[in-house]
Amino acid sequence: MTGQSRIGVTGLAVMGANLARNIARHGVPVAVHNRTGARTTEFIEAYGDEGEFTGTQSLQEFVDALERPRRIIVMVKAGKPVDGVITELTPLLDEGDIIIDAGNSHFPDTVRRTAECAANGIRFMGVGVSGGEEGALLGPSIMPGGDPEAYAEVKDVFEAIAAQVDGTPCVVHVGPGGAGHYVKMVHNGIEYADMQLIVEAYDLLTHVAGLDAPAIGKIFEEWNSGDLESFLIEITGKVLAKVDEKTGGPLVDVIVDRAGQKGTGTWTAIDALGLGIPLTGITEAVFARGLSALRDERKKASTTLAGPNPSAAEDRTDLVDDIRQALYASKVVAYAQGFAQMRAASLQNDWNLDLGAMATIWRGGCIIRAQFLNRIRDAYAEHPDLDNLLMVPYFTEAVANAQDAWRRVVVTATEQGVAIPAFSSSLSYYDGYRRERGPANLIQGLRDFFGAHTYERIDAEGSFHTRWAQDGTEVRTD
Ligand code: NBP
């Protein structure tokens, strides 16, 4: 039996429901399904008149409602539920049908599921979707990975429902296998770094500039009209301006300082460690959330461990602008690192990622959407094989101009005892990256001393070992 729905969505919690509504609102007939049937009934009751929906109560009914090849978006909780749905769907599907996992799956799972589905003649796509609840409904940034021929079957739908910036939809086929979910993972990692940089600026503005939340909210509002213009800077202004109904003071002042996380930042950092890519901005952001969670330990340490207590500066005019520049320079570094990571993963996995296209599809719909991404898109358009974004004249110059302020902020924060892990590690990365000769010569010497790991010389080919504990002579080992 062949149904009439062009595409199906199973999993009607907030993301799946909004994605299904977005698709139907674009005139595409959608079959919907949810494990708990009552949710489907409620969905049809609430939104049934927004488009051409077919509500189904069983997976058999669901697959029967779809055109061939069947195109099925799975929007269930990431992890085991995705495998469960694939297992249940597989016997009901035909050769060439397409399963699209649009949740936040970890990319190695996507690689495995692609192979498992292929063994059953099913085409599997791992698709990153960013933008949260509102993006799913009004236009997300979509990062589809998997078989390009399978993508061709859904391209028109994805392009219709994605956010649009300057007439360009925020969706592009990212690459094969796990590439889509990989890129979504790095997107989320960059989101962690962006947020950490924002909170470090907030901390300094509070404790070193001596400003209160509404005043800082206004500063973020101003910053949002310059180089920093972005969704996260914009909402920072709004969150800081919010008044708590209960206390009459700023809401942010009564929110517990313990950050949650769902794991995508950790995945990004772990992957960077495996690739050997320095990813200090994102990784420090993950560690900072970890430190924030040690609330009880911090409470004890706050009365035990010595250190300066920050005191508000008398003249804050220059300080506020210095903090803005430090935020911008650190942000450039965090993005340079994230893009370097995607480049390394692309080379390792033969994904052939178009990094300029990634910047292009992140300009709208997603959480890190920003003006700044236009600059990154331009950089890759001019230099497709770029090693590091810092080397493009625009960014080289931007960081060069900001660096005096950036260094002042790191010094001031350190003197005043304000933790700035992302600001300071970004500056250290910058200083390390711009050194032709670093100090790792000594590491090699030490490794050779205790483990005969050998070293190379700057003045001769080959590898060498010194008999440190014996006669001290050097021998060539290759
Ligand atoms: P949740 O992640 O909260 O998952 C709830 C859905 O999964 C419900 O439809 C539930 O069905 C279904 N489900 C579960 Br739980 N176990 C199942 C199983 N074994 N078999 C079949 N269905 C099962 O939903 P969400 O917040 O809409 O997110 C969906 C995906 O999108 C996740 O991967 C999430 O990480 C990702 N994502 C979320 C956001 C966001 O802002 N929330 C943003 C971007 C991406 P039930 O109704 O029967 O319990």
TrEMBL record:
Keyword Oxidoreductase: yes
Reactions mediated catalytically: 6-phospho-D-gluconate + NADP(+) = D-ribulose 5-phosphate + CO2 + NADPH
InterPro entries: 6-PGluconate_DH-like_C_sf, 6PGD_dom2, 6PGDH_C, 6PGDH_Gnd/GntZ, 6PGDH_NADP-bd, 6PGdom_BS, NAD(P)-bd_dom_sf, Pgluconate_DH
EC number(s) reported in the record: 1.1.1.44
Pathway, per record: Carbohydrate degradation; pentose phosphate pathway; D-ribulose 5-phosphate from D-glucose 6-phosphate (oxidative stage): step 3/3
GO term, biological process aspect, one: D-gluconate metabolic process
Sorted UniProt keywords: Gluconate utilization, NADP, Oxidoreductase, Pentose shunt
Binding-site positions, NADP(+): 11-16, 34-36, 76-78, 104
Binding residue positions for substrate: 104, 130-132, 187-188, 192, 262, 289, 447, 453
6-phosphogluconate dehydrogenase C-terminal domain residues: 180-469
Keyword NADP tagged: yes
Gene Ontology molecular functions: NADP binding; phosphogluconate dehydrogenase (decarboxylating) activity
Domain of life assignment: Bacteria
Ranges in a coiled coil: none
Pfam families: 6PGD, NAD_binding_2
PANTHER family tied to this protein: 6-PHOSPHOGLUCONATE DEHYDROGENASE
Family annotation (NCBIfam families): gnd, PRK09287.1
Oligomer status and interactors: Homodimer.
Family, similarity comment: Belongs to the 6-phosphogluconate dehydrogenase family.
Function: Catalyzes the oxidative decarboxylation of 6-phosphogluconate to ribulose 5-phosphate and CO(2), with concomitant reduction of NADP to NADPH.
Protein name (database record): 6-phosphogluconate dehydrogenase, decarboxylating
Taxonomic lineage from the root: Bacteria, Bacillati, Actinomycetota, Actinomycetes, Pseudonocardiales
